């Protein structure tokens, strides 16, 4: 009998394609927790999916109030459905990274573009300095071929154009994580999709150097 467990089992579970509703209990639990938080006057808010969710951003900015608004398996539609909670806190800075799950869920380019534009427009009239962060590359050798780096590049072009059209900052994190073969550098990941501790340091250091 084959042993069920270990890293191969975990990787297989992570590589299975979820639908946007797969993690609905987690999504709505997190959304409820966010909405019932009493914190105000936040300095930084990070918005996104699991790549954001797993980050301990508060520890990198100990002298600031930092909120993590990442939810694993989230996509642009999910972020749009919960962005008002972030907007209403009027944070000084907000950093958006979203899109890899849109690729996994086969979101059409025009739908993706429209959703991101609506997220950005939610901050109209607020003092928040919003920045769009690029989607990170994936490592197909570790993660499989569910998402290609050509798709990632295509979505990043959309993000960069939105930032230019809306007059907000676009932060190119992608180039800091890609190796010579156009893949997510193995030193920054364990599974080919999410970044490890070393990866978060690179991410945060780039934000600090702005």
Structural features:
210 residues, alpha/beta, five-stranded parallel sheet, 12 helices, 5 strands, 46% helix, disordered N terminus
Secondary-structure map:
Layout: H1 6-15, H2 24-35, E1 44-48, H3 50-53, H4 57-60, E2 66-70, H5 76-80, H6 83-88, E3 93-97, H7 100-104, H8 109-121, E4 129-133, H9 140-143, H10 149-166, E5 169-171, H11 174-177, H12 197-208
Parallel strand pairs: 1-2, 1-3, 3-4, 4-5
Helix pairs in contact: 8-10
Written description of the protein model:
- This protein is 46% helix and 11% strand.
- The chain has a five-stranded parallel β-sheet with strand order 2-1-3-4-5.
- The termini are far apart.
- It is globular, with a radius of gyration of 17 Å.
- With 210 residues, the protein is an alpha/beta fold.
- It has twelve helices and five strands.
- Helix 8 (109-121) runs parallel beside helix 10 (149-166).
State the gist of this model:
This protein is an alpha/beta fold. The protein has helices at 6-15, 24-35, 50-53, 57-60, 76-80, 83-88, 100-104, 109-121, 140-143, 149-166, 174-177, 197-208; strands at residues 44-48, 66-70, 93-97, 129-133, 169-171.
Radius of gyration: 17 Å
Specify the biggest β-sheet. 5 strands, parallel
What structural class do you assign from the helix and strand content? alpha/beta
Summed over residues and divided by their number, the pLDDT gives a mean of: 91
The percentage helix is: 40-55%
């Amino acid at each position: 009998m084959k042993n069920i467990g270990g890293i191969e089992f975990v990787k297989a579970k992570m590589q299975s394609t979820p639908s946007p509703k797969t993690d609905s209990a987690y999504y709505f639990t997190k959304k409820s927790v966010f909405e019932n938080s009493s914190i105000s006057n936040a300095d930084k808010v990070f918005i996104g999916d699991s790549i954001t969710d797993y980050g301990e951003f508060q520890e990198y900015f100990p002298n600031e109030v930092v909120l993590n608004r990442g939810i694993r398996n989230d996509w642009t539609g999910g972020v749009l459905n919960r962005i008002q909670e972030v907007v209403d806190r009027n944070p000084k800075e907000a950093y958006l990274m979203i899109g890899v799950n849109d690729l996994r869920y086969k979101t059409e380019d025009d739908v993706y573009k429209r959703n991101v534009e609506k997220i950005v427009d939610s901050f109209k009239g607020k003092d928040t300095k919003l920045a769009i962060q690029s989607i990170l590359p994936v490592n197909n050798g570790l993660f499989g071929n569910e998402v290609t780096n050509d798709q990632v590049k295509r979505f990043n072009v959309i993000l960069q154009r939105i930032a230019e059209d809306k007059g907000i900052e676009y932060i190119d994190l992608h180039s800091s994580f890609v190796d010579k073969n156009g893949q997510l550098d193995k030193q920054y990941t364990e599974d080919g999709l999410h970044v490890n501790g070393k990866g978060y340091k690179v991410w945060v250091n780039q934000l600090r150097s702005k």
